[in-house]
Amino acid sequence: MAVMMIISRLFIFCKILPKAVLDISRFKPRITVKNTADPAGFIKFIEPNYYDGNHVATGLIVHQKDTSVSLNFANETLPLNDKRVIGKMKRSLRLHRFCKVQTNLLHRKAEKMFPVIEPILKAHGIPDDFKFIPLVESGFGEGKSSKGAYGPWQFMAGTARTYGLKVNKGVDERLNLRKSTIAACKYLRELHHEFKSWAMVAAAYNMGSPNLAHIMRKQCQCNYFRIKMNAETGRYVYNLIAMKEIIKDPKLYGYTYHKPTYSVNTSFNGELLAFN
User: Which stretches make up the Transglycosylase SLT domain (predicted)?
Assistant: First the structure.
């Protein structure tokens, strides 16, 4: 009886083994790659012999081309050894992914606005990363904020007049992208003269320089990533960085939008409204 059982099991094993070998030969292992350019730790599953510009996969071996990439705002690098900073950056990147946003509106706005904004920022010595402020400030809306801020740079009426924009019943130059960008550059230069850090300039743009100066004195702290501030301003620079990432690499964050190629007009002639 024992001999019969052994023979029976050998027969079953010999019958199943060829099919198992065939299934294994058809199997293509997926390789899990963590993109170091993405601190949110989003995972990529890639097939053998896959190449995406940052990773080369051959069989089960993944070679990373560049591990030195780090996130920054205006060349001020995030302290990614700080778990709190990593957590806030992860959250902002996650909220800006296509699965959350479900629209390419921000990319279309960037396509329209950046050719006007970029040369003006450069002419005034403002870092290029500040071009993302109108996308973060106005977001998906086009009207006034609950506090009365208006236009792509979300100027309050009084601030707009201070920096040379006409705001009255007949004319509101806060909606003029070229003129409001020039006004924003003047304001940003003044803020940098006061705070010395571009990240802190962005924070001051959001919450107002007197409020930020008060917090800095109270906490004896001048580092954006260390200082404690209100929730909106506390995530403001992270949102600017996230916006930069999704515009720069839409595919990585789930967008199907294809970046257009455009030529930058360095002259400031002509009028371009923000949301026509």
Answer: 127-214
DSSP assignment of 204-235: HHHH-HHHHHHHHHHHT---TTTS---HHHHT
Q: Torsions phi, psi of 58, nearest 5? A: -130, 110
Beta carbons within 10 angstroms of residue 227's beta carbon: 19
Q: Token digits for 234?
A: 């506390």
pLDDT band for position 43 (cuts 50, 70, 90): very low
Strands 76-77 and 72-73, sheet pairing: antiparallel
Decide: 164 and 150 in contact? Cβ < 8 Å.
Answer: no
Going along the chain from its start, the domains and CATH numbers come out as 29-69 (no CATH), 83-253 (1.10.530.10)
> Where are the extended beta strands (E) located within the chain?
31-34, 43-46, 55-58, 61-64, 72-73, 76-77
Tens-digit pLDDT profile for residues 196-212 = 999 999 999 999 999 99
Residue matched to tokens 């800006």: 96
Q: Average pLDDT for residues 239-246, to the nearest whole number?
A: 94
57 pairs with which residues across the strands? 62
* pLDDT tens readout for residues 81-100: 899 999 999 999 999 898 88
